[in-house]
Amino acid sequence: MDRQGGAPASPPHPGPIEREQKPPALWLPRLYLRLLGAQVRSQLVYRTAFALDALAAALVTGAEFAAFALVLPRFDSLGGWTLGEVALLYGLAELAFVLMDLVFGGFDAPNLSAHVRTGSFSTFLLRPVPLPVQIFGSDFALRRLTRVVLAAGIVAYGVSRVSVTWDAGDVLLLAGSVLGMIAFFGGLFVVGGTLTFWTVESVEAMNVLTYGGRTLISYPLNIYPAWLRRTFTYLIPAAFLSYFPVLHVLGRPLPDGLPSWAALLSPVVGPLILAAAFAFWRVGVRRYHGTGS
Amino acid sequence: MNAALLRRAGGSHLRPYLSAARLSFRRQFAYPAATFWGLTTNLFFGALRVAVLLALFGTRPQVAGYTPADAVTYTGLTQAFLSAFSLFGWYELMRTVHRGEVATELLRPHSFLGFWLAQDAGRAAAQFGLRGVTILALYGVFFGLKLPPGVEGWTLTLISAVLAWVCGFAFRFLVNCAAFWSPDAVGIGRFAWALMGLACGFLMPLAFFPGWFRTLLAWTPFPSMMNSTVEVWLGHAKGGEALGVLGVQAVWAAALLGLAQLVLARGLRRLEVAGG
């Protein structure tokens, strides 16, 4: 595409300029899908290795949950929560996190810092394609699909084992919970990625919030010390994402006398964090110097 | 040969291994920031694991021979061994095979396996000194930590920890040998680490698992890679029983090292190094 066509001095020519200013509808989504397609094809070159990798991805999650499920019968319950109830929390958190990883993987600090260090990030800036689309399309790990399936299975197990008469509202609430979590953890990935503009080294501190946060909300928050639960409710609003919605579905009151509508806030809290994260991202991109490589 | 001569011959024979271990030890101190954040992450995850285990116990004084204090000590120990035993993956050998750097190492006039063992010994010792001891001290301050019973307990624990590291190293070495056969052995690695995490007792103490599962694991080397050391530390296995545990660990260590040597010889025979 000729970018100089729109020089301000020349009067507008309806033909070519119009075409440049208004790219065909769905241009960006189509481009994004093409980027994903290219990665999927490359990942399928070594079939056996891919199959093992995909199996291993599921086994990491599977082993953690299996260890918990194997041990629980000796103890009856986890802070008053049955295996089915914990499965619901655990499965929702895992499902949202792995979906987020598929979408936002390019922003994860190790990936982005590699681009910054090697200078390929500067190449992204030269291309006539919006920067976020390129980052979104830069790390799509197909092997994680097995984890999506496993997580969905754990949620299904949880749904079948809890004594809830499901209605459309409950289903919507949990769907909103997953969307909120995807936006929330996506926002954390964007913040972690942005920090690499300043530090170059990958930002290990963010792992406490991302991977640590995922583990934290995989279990009922009432089992943690009060200060930890309050930190992840009022300072970092992770409790709103899945703990409150699941409490609501199970018909239990929220802690600290919070009103029951607070359980509906996941689809609000998540996108707010994501919007703030992208504001920070724009500041980071403006300040970006490159490493000279 | 007199004793002095023997010592000198032995000394010069061991020198490359000792310097490999020493260099690898020193390398671990190169990134203090990474060590600090690694510690923070480790402690945070440790705190979450303590909360889950204590919530499982509830008001019970004891389950499967573990008191709540035992369970807290168990998480402290496993979190402390995490980096020393390199449980979350280790792909260094694999990388040298894929990059062809392995060819340079094969030119050296000493045992390939022994050299890697020495390097990993240095790495593990530094990681335990840097992170492990710090984590145990912080656990002692924040959560409380049970210590091995007496001098005998400390001695048995120390031997058991060294044997656990040898078993774990030999297993990691074996997994990395897959690189001789597969152009992309990383998946095999990820698979193996996940299996190891569950079966060595990192995710939950093996004593809590159902009987059939523990019987199954008893036939594998995995419990020897961590769970055995925890049981000796906690004094769950003491005296003759502890010696039995150490014996099993020693047999697995020897068997795994032997297998690693065998698989390595096979792998080297089919190694092709592309240009450089």
UniProtKB/TrEMBL annotation, chain A:
The keyword Transmembrane helix applies. Coiled coil: none annotated. The chain crosses the membrane at residues 50-75, 87-107, 148-166, 172-198, 232-250, 262-281. Signal peptide: none annotated. Residues 1-20 are annotated as: Disordered. InterPro entries: ABC-2_transporter-like (IPR010390). Keywords: Membrane, Transmembrane, Transmembrane helix. This is ABC transporter permease.
From TrEMBL, chain B:
InterPro entries: ABC-2_transporter-like. The chain crosses the membrane at residues 36-59, 71-91, 128-145, 157-181, 193-213, 242-264. This is ABC transporter permease. It comes from the Bacteria. It holds the Pfam family ABC2_membrane_6. The keyword Transmembrane helix applies. Keywords: Membrane, Transmembrane, Transmembrane helix.
